[in-house]
Amino acid sequence: MWGFSLKTWFFALFFLGIPLDSPAFDLNGTWILKKSEISYLVTHPLHHVYGKSLSAKGKGVCYKGNFQFLVAVPVKSFDSGDNNRDLHMLEVTRAGTYPMVVVKVQVLPNNSEPTTLTELLVNTMVDFAGQEATYQKVKLEVLDWTEDGVHLKGNLPITLKDFDIQPPSLLGIPIQNDVPVGLDMIWQRENSHVSQVDKK
């Protein structure tokens, strides 16, 4: 298990290992998470709850066809539009002890060039609420990919049981176990190429 404090949340890891290396499409350089929306959907027989966070931070380096990114999302940054509900969510997910959601992603090999990709297939490991769960062959849709930026969107099929979270109840009826998490991320190249020294 990883321990995090709110002061060091930005050291959480989100790894993308993308084996794409085309001389005509140089992806080498430093990348930053320009914009993102991480969301969750809770379903109850009486209503649905949608919460989202716009507070994910990230930075990474692509070199010789492999990406390594650093991203973190504080649990307390998710907003469902109801402060009391959000406070209860922090308690249920043990956010006081485990304030971060951490995701490790390994992109499966794909021989296509980035300009022709429509989706990435990934294996993921999620560290949340003090527990770890693995999800294999998750699809990430490629909405746009250029030498200077990439827009990815997908869903992680998370369940409460995976993280030993007791489903909260309303009027004696618990919420559903499935709580899908949506990922909508725009990564932008910070510099066009790694230094000539690094390339030697």
Protein model, in words:
The strands form two sheets. An eight-stranded antiparallel barrel has the order 1-3-4-5-6-7-8-11. A two-stranded antiparallel sheet has the order 9-10. The chain is elongated, with a radius of gyration of 18 Å. The protein has helices spanning 83-92, 196-199; strands spanning 29-44, 47-53, 57-63, 66-74, 100-107, 119-128, 131-146, 149-156, 169-170, 173-174, 181-189. The chain contains two helices and eleven strands, in the order E-E-E-E-H-E-E-E-E-E-E-E-H. The model is unreliable at 1-15, 18-24 and 192-200 (pLDDT under 50).
pLDDT < 50 stretches:
1-15, 18-24, 192-200
- Judged by helices, strands and strand pairing, the structural class is mainly beta
Helical amount among residues, as a percent range?
A: under 10%
How does the overall form come out from the CA principal axes?
Answer: elongated
Mean pLDDT: 80
The overall strand count is 11
Counting DSSP H or I runs of 4 or more residues, the number of helices is 2
Order of helical and strand elements = EEEEHEEEEEEEH
Main sheet record: 8 strands, antiparallel, barrel
Give the strand content: over 45%
Can you list the strand order of the major beta sheet?
1-3-4-5-6-7-8-11
End-to-end CA span:
38 Å
